[in-house]
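Feature request, filed as a ticket because there's no other form

It would be nice if the structure record came with a short human-readable summary line next to the tokens. Right now we just get the raw output. Example of a typical job, pasted below so the devs can see what we mean:
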Amino acid sequence: MFTENKTIAARDLGGGVTRKVLSYSDKLMACELRMEKGAVGALHAHPHEQIGYIVSGKLVYQEEGKEDKILETGDTYYVAPNVVHGVQILEDTKLLDIFTPMREDFIS
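Raw output as currently delivered:
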């Protein structure tokens, strides 16, 4: 599968957040998120493993039971299944999120 980013419409999730679903299979998915300064990725959990890569920008990563962590361009984070997590965006940010298995809720 090849995915040309320029051909994918960003889905407006509200609150200064957009998402593009990039390449995926039943077992793996890549998504691009753009989040404006001040946006919030509310605390949530899902059964998927997730790795986030900060392409550009700066955010506060939050995970239940742990201290908040400031992450910026080039940093990554891992989220285990069913762990409550979220982000607060400190400056305009572009993320690459990888999920396994793929997020069926993102393509419906």
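Something like this underneath would help us a lot:
The two ends are 19 Å apart (CA to CA).
DSSP finds no helices and eight strands in the chain.
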